[in-house]
Specification:
The structure holds 2 protein chains of 2 kinds.
Chain A: H1 3-19, E1 22-27, H2 30-33, H3 37-51, E2 57-62, E3 74-77, E4 81-83, H4 94-102, E5 111-112, H5 117-120, H6 138-143, H7 148-156, H8 159-169, H9 181-190, E6 199-204, H10 213-220, H11 222-236, E7 240-245, H12 250-265, E8 281-286, H13 296-303, E9 327-331, H14 332-344, H15 346-350, E10 360-367, E11 373-378, H16 383-390, E12 400-405, E13 411-414, H17 424-429, E14 438-443, H18 448-462, H19 468-485, H20 492-507, H21 511-515, H22 518-526, H23 528-536, H24 552-557
Parallel strand pairs in A: 1-2, 6-7, 6-9, 7-8, 10-14
Antiparallel strand pairs in A: 1-3, 3-4, 4-5, 10-11, 12-13, 12-14
Helix pairs in contact in A: 3-4, 7-11, 7-14, 8-9, 8-11, 10-12, 11-14, 18-19, 18-22, 19-20
Chain B: H1 4-15, E1 25-29, E2 34-47, E3 59-60, E4 63-64, E5 78-83, H2 89-92, E6 97-106, H3 121-131, H4 139-150, H5 155-164, H6 169-178, E7 190-195, H7 198-202, H8 205-216, E8 229-234, E9 246-248, E10 251-253, H9 258-271
Parallel strand pairs in B: 7-8
Antiparallel strand pairs in B: 1-6, 2-3, 2-5, 2-6, 4-5, 7-9, 9-10
Classes of the chains: A alpha/beta, B alpha+beta.
Chain lengths: 558, 273
């Protein structure tokens, strides 16, 4: 496959697509599929055949369109009409209505305004193809400039030039910690190893509860991740890659497998890609449900077929990783950013976002918010805009209480910081982290000590047990929170909890333990009155916890 | 390997244990060929009991891959090392030979381990192991296949996997119990996985769990007495937009309310009763 051959495929595919003036896109990502979008698609196809519209209209299964709460979503191109909550043919006439509107009849009640802030205010880099291309056809991806970046890089750029572009773009790790990607790449590129073996790993072990960005990217545009990995492999000098993906995402695994096979068939993966000396293969490794495997050294152990326990760093995986060889580990979203950076240049990417946090970030908006789903926004956007403009605010007229970012390792951001820009530094300043992009909105029906207890329960069961501070500390913190929420705690136990927080975060071996106290620390800082209400008045202000008020006699007896 | 390999292998197993990488160990064999499983890099030397350190190079083993083993493109190479003193002049006349092996050394198991039963599902498991060249690092992949084929991992399966991948049983058991995805108990006829991710928690998954508890009297991780329904929890099924989500027999249902949950469970419970 040479660059000319690739462009020829793209040209043929584009011509083929233009033959049919109208296209109906049906979302085939997991959320809409669970609402039977596959039946909707079949119904639309049957309806079009029935009306003899095959030559003017075509149905295409595409990836996630973002607004998962309103699924199944159907869009009609090129008008860009959007329909929500389309029921399969056996449940109503929705399908016939849509095909009818294609024919020129008036629009129907399911129509969704594409001018909503939810759609309009997004800036799409990672998700530019989501909802537009068929994730199971590589030709569709190639027609959208796919693999152009890889072949250009292979034929006209040196590995050093690629790393320079990535460094210039200011891209930072999208897994949560925000380590500069260019720096990581150059460390791996410089590392020397026995018989020059190096590995590239894609971390798709999206364990954060409440986060589904990686799943969506893999389900909607798997080729983009493969292309990013191949460019990374060329830049650092690796010839074998692994994608470590959760076994809980069967659809993402299936689409990845299809994507790898199609890329291999076209010679875009495998030996001597683009008639150069560069060879690269990608294998899939399945996770098995361990949150700690998102930590890079634990992930490496798991890829090697062992228990996923972390080990102390240094040596960092960039020096000694998989089977002792220098290993580059990046998150799905990081790799998904690579192809556009190479294609359009690092300076273009650096033009988006803030001074220290460049580019865009995909967030999984969930919880007590009107529009739950997937959004991509430029770094530096205000939290208020995300929740109230794109998210459409809090439903049922309730009051906003906190936004939780970063999952169990992150913190709760209270109302007074809603006007803060969303970037790595600002979130760290208020005690939370960017995390992989889960953003859970809570309203006044959530009890903050109870939320802290929920996260501590998560960390307690997910602790791998290797180091004592994390294994024992999280259990003790959970017990304390249990006492607080049940109304059995005394006020001095609050200071004990605070002390434990600092011990566990300072002495744990890996990121899981070091960040486990974050939800407790932030809720204690911003919602201390709720803790005090549980302790002093034996009362849960949100009405969530079942506090057992001590009877007068017990208090006297004390 | 020919049929004689099994006998040889079991003999040499008496002498050879698992070695730490880099540790040298003298392994005594008497006259016969010796077969060792070694992980590269390997350095094998043979000497007679009376020879000095200088004579050690009198024999140097060569590492060859056995006929049924595929050398994978990556990772440590498991090499079938065949040392046949009978063919080498220097060693032939010695009554006893000591092999010094440097590197990671595995006890030699018979080349093929037979599946525990004639069940055709074992062939699928065998297929996965073959695809990964029976490498120990394929353990998690193989366990996934076993669970997919049989529904759970029982003792027989774990022992079979351990032997086939030449791993200690303790390691296999350790991995199987470390990861939440693997289950050592058979599931009921129907499974119901309640997502307990943050979004689902906030939107009421505890109430769903309580509903199941009240209708079927089972806790998360348990199966009802008549083996009809298993209740499981998941960290996050990634359907946060549809919170609270429940996976009924592999099918994700979104925005589930407790009443619907109880109804479904009751239907399952009484369906075959």
């Amino acid at each position: 496959m040479t660059l000319d051959e690739l462009r020829e495929i793209a040209r043929i595919e584009r011509e083929k697509q233009q033959e049919v003036p109208r296209k109906i896109h049906v979302c085939m990502a997991a959320a809409c599929l669970s609402q039977h979008s596959d039946k909707v698609k079949a119904g639309l196809e049957a309806q079009i055949k029935e009306k003899g519209l095959e030559h003017s209209c075509k149905v295409k299964g595409v990836g996630c369109m973002g607004l998962c709460a309103a699924g199944p979503l159907v869009s009609v191109e090129p008008e860009g009409k959007l329909y929500q909550g389309v029921r399969p043919p056996e449940e109503g006439s929705d399908v016939a209505d849509i095909v009818g509107s294609v024919d020129g009849k008036p629009a129907n009640k399911l129509e969704l305004d594409p001018g909503l802030p939810f759609f309009k205010e997004q800036v799409k880099v990672v998700l530019e193809n989501s909802g537009k291309i068929d994730p199971e056809r590589i030709e569709d991806y190639i027609a959208a400039d796919g693999y152009e970046a890889l072949l250009t890089a292979l034929t006209s750029m040196t590995p050093l030039e690629i790393i320079e572009q990535v460094t210039k773009s200011g891209l930072r790790g999208r897994g949560g910690a925000g380590y500069p990607t260019g720096l990581k790449w150059s460390t791996v590129a410089k590392a020397r190893s026995q018989n020059n073996t190096k590995f590239v790993i894609c971390n798709a072990d999206e364990g954060d509860p409440g986060a589904f960005m990686d799943r969506s990217v893999l389900e909607s545009d798997p080729q983009r991740v493969l292309e990013g990995m191949a460019i990374a492999a060329y830049a650092v000098g690796a010839s074998q890659g692994y994608i470590y993906v959760r076994a809980e995402y069967p659809l993402a695994i299936k689409r990845l497998k299809t994507a790898i096979k199609q890329a291999e068939n076209l010679g875009l993966l495998g030996n001597n890609i683009c008639e150069t000396r560069f060879s690269f293969r990608i294998d899939i490794r399945l996770g098995a449900g361990a949150f700690v495997c998102g930590e890079e050294t634990a992930l490496i152990n798991s890829v090697e077929g062992k228990r996923g326990t972390p080990r102390p760093r240094p040596p960092y995986p960039a020096q000694e990783g998989l089977w002792g060889a220098p290993t580059l580990i990046n998150n799905v979203e990081t790799y998904a950013n690579i192809a556009p950076i190479v294609r359009k240049g690092g300076a273009w990417f650096a033009g988006i976002g803030t001074e220290k946090s460049k580019g865009t970030k995909v967030f999984a908006l969930a919880g007590r918010v009107q529009n739950t789903g997937l959004i991509e926004v430029p770094m530096g956007i205000k939290l208020r805009d995300i929740i109230f403009r794109l998210g459409g605010g809090i439903p049922d007229g309730r009051k906003f209480k906190a936004a939780q970012t970063g999952g169990p390792s992150g913190g709760c951001v209270p109302e007074q910081y809603l006007d803060m820009p969303v970037d790595y530094e600002s979130l760290a300043k208020v005690g939370s982290i960017m995390g992989s992009g889960g953003l859970i909105v809570m309203d006044d029906s959530s009890c903050m000590p109870d939320v802290a207890k929920y996260f501590m329960d998560f960390c307690r069961t997910e602790s791998c047990g290797k180091c004592a501070p994390c294994r024992v500390g999280t259990t003790h913190m959970y017990n304390l929170l249990e006492r607080i929420t049940s109304g059995a705690a005394a006020e001095k136990e609050l200071s004990l909890l605070e002390e434990l927080c600092s011990v566990v975060s300072q002495t744990s071996l890996c990121g899981l333990g070091q960040s486990a106290p974050n939800p407790v620390v932030t809720t204690l800082r911003y919602f201390r009155d709720e803790y005090l209400a549980h302790i002093g008045e034996k009362h849960c202000p949100a009405g969530v916890c079942k506090t057992k008020p001590l009877s007068r006699t017990t208090e006297v007896g004390k | 390997m020919s049929s004689s390999s099994g006998a040889l292998a079991s003999e040499s197993r008496l002498r050879l244990g698992k070695h730490k990488p880099g540790a040298a160990k003298d392994c005594w064999r008497y006259g016969n060929p010796v077969q060792l499983w070694v992980l590269s890099p390997v350095d094998v030397m043979a000497r007679t009991p009376n020879s000095t350190e200088k004579d050690e190079t009198a024999y140097k083993g060569t590492a060859e891959a056995g006929p049924e083993e595929r050398i994978p493109a990556s990772g440590p190479t498991t090499t079938w090392l065949l040392i046949d003193p009978a063919k080498k002049g220097t060693v032939e006349h010695c009554p006893a030979v000591s092999f010094r092996v440097k590197g990671d050394l595995m006890p030699a198991y018979p080349a093929t381990v037979l599946p525990p039963s004639d069940d055709k599902r074992w062939r699928i498991v065998e297929g996965t192991m073959r695809r990964h060249g029976r490498e120990p690092n394929a353990l998690i992949e193989v366990l996934h296949t076993v669970q997919e084929s049989f529904g759970y991992l029982d003792d027989t399966a774990l022992k079979f996997v351990a032997q086939s991948l030449r791993l200690p049983y303790s390691k296999v058991f350790g991995v199987a119990t470390f990861y939440h995805f693997f289950t050592l108990k058979p599931k009921g006829k129907h499974t119901c996985v309640v997502c307990t991710g943050t979004a689902c928690y906030i939107k009421g998954s505890p109430a769903l769990l309580k509903a199941v508890e009240e209708t079927a009297h089972i806790q998360p991780g348990e199966t009802s007495e008549d083996d009809q329904v298993s209740l499981l929890t998941a960290r996050c099924v990634g359907s946060c937009g549809l919170a609270p989500a429940v996976v009924f027999d592999g099918e994700v249902a979104g925005k589930v309310v407790p009443e619907e949950m109880s109804k479904r469970i009751l239907r399952w419970l009484h369906h075959d009763a």
